[in-house]
Specification:
By secondary structure, this protein is α/β, with parallel strands linked by helices. 33% of the residues lie in helices and 26% in strands. Helix 8 links the parallel strand 9 and strand 10. The chain starts with a strand and ends with a strand.
Length: 326
């Protein structure tokens, strides 16, 4: 069975940005071929193919697999070193300041922290939801993630981190506790008071992306209430941030969304609180030194003032480390 190989090196990614080399590599993923075979399929000369093949071989993307000699004719067969390639890479700013890559659940206090830390570091955020953020962290696509995943036993984040990182020394640090609930148009003209009301005819909902902590909480509650997702108009429409949810309601594109009280407040929306959650930063312990500017800021009075200015945040446990012991 052929394997899928990850490509992280920027020089390899740059090499494959050439469509000619990509075409050769894709042919050699399918089956071994000679220079003559490739030249015939591509409509090019063997010398042209040899030039690009040598580049691919030098980048360890292609290898010589067989040499056949028939009389005076020698044929060399080449093949790609994997059945498929997964391109993964980050292009980071060239600066004297370190670049800190965050991928995980969207958070407004973290966005404010990025602005505060501009003098010391580039805090670059990729909001993809709690679960996908942990997967990105596992794959080395970021240095820190953020999650608010509630497991069936009532524990936040720890069971998920233990499952995804069984072989890694991980650290969890609480960013804040946050209030989530229903975001509604000013004055609540549709008379929405509970999740069950979302199934009423004529109401339009906007959802969060699959894998986000908010979406997972919502799906669990729908199951508990016996509400099928298809009964909610707009369940399949998903956005990746709390701000986008609030924007959809504020613009009249949706009548309701589930999200942060802080995002609803910023958009001038009505809000019905439903639950409070713990939001943690998740990082491998070896990244602790690189992330010191961010982790130190969480301990500061400046961070607490900033987070408390966001409606629905509490900071009594901000900066606290959570043990992973089972």
């Amino acid at each position: 069975m052929d394997k899928v190989e990850r490509i992280h090196a920027l020089d390899q990614i740059k090499l494959l940005s050439d469509s000619r080399r990509m075409a050769i590599l894709r042919l050699l993923m399918d089956r071994p071929a000679t220079l003559t075979d490739l030249a015939r399929v591509l409509g090019q000369s063997p010398a042209w193919v040899r030039h690009h093949l040598q580049k691919l071989e030098g980048a360890q993307l292609v290898e010589l697999t067989e040499v056949r000699t028939t009389g005076k004719v020698t044929e060399k067969f080449y093949r790609a070193r994997a059945g498929a390639f997964l391109l993964q890479g980050l292009v980071l700013p060239q600066s004297d300041k370190p670049a800190l890559i965050f991928s995980g659940s969207h958070d407004l206090a973290l966005e404010a922290a990025a602005v505060h830390l501009e003098k010391h570091a580039h805090l670059l955020t990729l909001p993809v939801g709690s679960l996908d953020g942990l997967v990105n962290l596992r794959q080395g696509l970021c240095q820190v993630s953020g999650a608010h995943l509630l497991d069936p036993g009532g524990e936040y984040n720890l069971p998920f981190v233990r499952h995804i990182f069984p072989d890694r020394d991980m650290e969890l640090v609480t960013l804040a506790h946050r209030t989530q609930g229903l975001m509604l148009a000013p004055g609540n003209p549709k008379g929405i008071h509970a999740l069950a009301d979302l199934a009423r005819a004529g109401l339009r909902f906007v959802n969060r992306n699959p894998g986000s902590g908010t979406r997972l909480w919502f799906d669990t509650e729908l199951q508990r209430l016996g509400l099928p997702p298809e009964s909610i108009a707009g369940y399949e429409r998903a956005v990746s941030t709390h701000t986008a949810c609030a924007g959809a309601v504020a613009s009249g594109e949706a009548d309701a969304a589930l999200g942060l009280q802080a995002a609803a407040h910023q958009a001038g929306l009505d809000f019905i609180p439903l639950f409070e959650e713990r939001y943690d930063l998740v990082l491998p312990r070896e990244n602790q030194a690189a992330l010191a500017p961010l982790l130190d800021y969480l301990q500061s009075a400046a961070f607490r003032r900033s987070a408390l200015s966001l409606t629905g945040y509490t900071t009594a446990h901000s900066g606290e480390q959570i043990t992973l012991s089972s």
